[in-house]
Amino acid sequence: MHEAAALVRARKTSSVELTRACIAQIERLDGELVAFISKTLDRALTDAARADGELAAGHDRGVLHGIPVALKDLFDVQGDVTTAGSKIFADNVAKEDSAVAAKLRAAGAVFLGKTNLHEWAFGVTNQNPHFGKAKNPWDPASIPGGSSGGTAIAVATGMCFLSPGSDTGGSIRIPAALCGVAGLKPTYGRVSLRGAVPLSWSLDHAGPLARSVRDLAIGLQCLAGWDQGDPVAAQLDVEDYVTHLDDGIKGVRVIVPAGYFFDDVDPEVEKAVRDAARTLADLGAILVERPLPRTDELRETQRAILSVDAATFHRERLEARADDFGSDVLQRLRAGQQIGGVETARARRTAVEIRREWVSLIGPIGPIGPIGQDGLILTPTTPTAAPQREGQDAIATVARLTTFTSPFNFTGLPALSIPCGFTKDGLPIGLQLAAAPWREALLLRAARAYEAATNWHERHPQH
Fold it and tell me: Are 238 and 191 in contact, with CB atoms under 8 Å apart?
């Protein structure tokens, strides 16, 4: 993306030409891969021509000026339908832009449409019963991951240059890993969720997916910041995520957790991730292998918080339109209705305690701290590469694929996924890195150091 943006600003290409290239990919591939729920292609060409006119008149909105993007179909765009992947919202026309859409629009981005997602963002297979079953661009017989599956497909295949997703238990990082792109879940409260259909008020995050770490940094730079309209948005200054991206990671401690995060992992995934850890060590990082505390409590803590929040948000729809939910989503929402107040309160308290204990290992909290105190956690993004679409139990697949991602939702720690290899069958493998709260600049710097030393991010599906 950043290369294309530079060409546009140098007048060596145009936003219209970039937009036409993305539209050509959409028209060629989307019928098979089902990345989009709705498209606004004619409007995109009009907006691209306007962006070119602005540049010609000397009005430069920045790095995203004229860049074609797509939005996961739970972010409101004024005048367009936001379905959240459900037929219940088939006529849900947005009255104003979400915070994410407004920031992209202000930066000059061109909107191509809304991408496919697991219904209500409550799942990881993206086999949507209402708007079509999304397919992995590396192997259409496999799932793309979710819930931001359409977003990852669109980025991986060049249908767009950047696309924001949402992440409640791994919904940015899982499809990024399974589709071979980069995806970032920032610290809880770093990006406003105003105008985004919620899944869990306590766990939802928004962040970018792109083909490179530099593009993630640019995307986060655009999206981050306080918003008075979001009660959990953090009123903290936004760091410069781009300028020091290539400063390296010499002296940074990287915890490779013993036990939980490498239990029951596919051997090809484990080898790729451990090779990635050695690459970081070669770049000057200090590897520390040790267990993280209280990992035996992770699954139930996440499950209770997420399930209760989701069931509460959908309470009236469950009473009035239960038959309009997909079977796996309905089953999970019903399970959430059975979780009592005591269990929920205990889970929320446990989440706070685990967050504090993990941060104490990788601190400090905040954008500035001595290098010797900097720390990261390194894990596989998912225990396996992309499973086959047919014959998958959607609920069991959620439990499996969110094992390593969901802890960073209820702790609120920033985490990202970048490609670190491929299986013998040619499916991408994801490396997950996490940092202390508000340490996105460090996280991106480490990911960029790894990316610069390898070429996995340069491989794209042959579609």
Answer: no
Rounded to whole angstroms, the Cα distance separating 254 from 329 reads 37
Strand partners, 209: 163, 183
Q: Are 431 and 273 in contact (CB under 8 A)?
A: yes
The pLDDT of residue 363 is 78
The whole-number average pLDDT for the span 88-99 is 98
Q: What is the pLDDT of residues 393-434, one digit of tens each?
A: 999 999 999 999 999 999 999 999 999 999 999 999 999 999
Length of the chain: 463
How many CA within 13 A on the CB side of residue 431? 31
Q: Judge whether residue 161 has pLDDT over 70.
A: yes
Three-state SS sequence of 419-440: EEEECCCCCEEEEEEEECCCCH
- N- to C-terminal Cα distance for the chain? 19
Residue 84 Ramachandran class (φ > 0 left, ψ -120 to 50 alpha, else beta): left
Name which of 101, 162, 125 is nearest 34 in CA terms. 125
pLDDT value at residue 369: 43
pLDDT of residue 373: 62
368: which 2 tokens? 């500035």
pLDDT-based confidence at 36, cuts 50/70/90?
very high
CA–CA separation, 459 and 197 (whole Å): 33
Which residues, 6 or more positions from 298, have their beta carbon under 8 angstroms from its beta carbon? 260, 354, 406, 407
Contact 404/377 with Cβ under 8 angstroms? no
> How far apart are the C-alpha atoms of 237 and 214, rounded to whole Å?
20
Task: Give yes or no for residue 371 having a pLDDT over 50.
Answer: no
Six token digits for residue 395 = 């609920």
- Pair of tokens at residue 54: 């602005």
Which residue numbers are catalytic? 72, 147, 171
Q: How far apart are CA 194 and CA 223, in angstroms?
A: 12
347: DSSP letter: H
216 touches 444 (CB < 8 A):
yes
Count helices and strands in the chain by DSSP H and E runs: 15, 13
- DSSP-derived letter for residue 173 is H
Gap between the Cα atoms of 396 and 176, Å rounded: 20
- Give SS3 for 286: strand
